[in-house]
Amino acid sequence: MKNRNIKHSDNWATPKWLYDELNKEFNFDFDPCPLNHNMIWDGLNVDWGSCNFVNPPYSRKLKEAFIKKAYYEWCYFGRTSVLLLPVSTSTIVFHEYIYPFAEIRLLKKRIAFEGYNSKGEFVSDKKPMHDSMIIIFR
């Protein structure tokens, strides 16, 4: 069983094959939470592009904030957002913001992310504890 008390990083790269596949379909022009961003940057407090790729931090509060921001950008400005998220269908944010309004694509397998593990080692085969889904507000 995984130790859930270990401090986990929120800074994991989207697999290139997955980003390329989605970008081919959507032609992204903005990423509100880029990997290894400058700490001054705050993707929650800027206007987003017309078509956004969002792989938010998976910590609960930040993940929910980016989902709500994507919903807001779509609802009020008509901006498209494609989010890579862990499957979590029992949450309030799923039932109030995602399920009634977004297209949901479940991925067939757990995807491997790249980043630094809790030991400070770079890994390219890090799979999360949850399956992943693509959420599209458009």
Walk me through what this model shows.
This protein has helices at 16-26, 60-77, 92-98, and strands at 51-54, 80-86, 103-106, 113-116, 122-126, 132-137. It is α+β, with helices and mostly antiparallel strands and 138 residues long. It has one domain (16-34, 43-137). β4 (113-116) and β5 (122-126) form a beta hairpin. The longest helix is centred in the middle third of the chain and has 18 residues, at 60-77. The termini are far apart. The model is unreliable at 1-7 (pLDDT under 50).
Strand order of the largest sheet: 1-2-6-3
Question: Cα-atom Rg, whole angstroms?
Answer: 15 Å
When the domains are counted, the total is 1
Shape: globular
**Fraction in helix:** 25-40%
Average pLDDT reading: 87
Q: Spans with pLDDT under 50 lasting ≥5 residues?
A: 1-7
Largest sheet data: 4 strands, mixed
Structural class: alpha+beta
N-C termini distance:
38 Å
- Count of extended strands: 6
Fraction of residues in β-strands: 15-25%
> How many DSSP H or I helices?
3
List the helices and strands in order: HEHEHEEEE
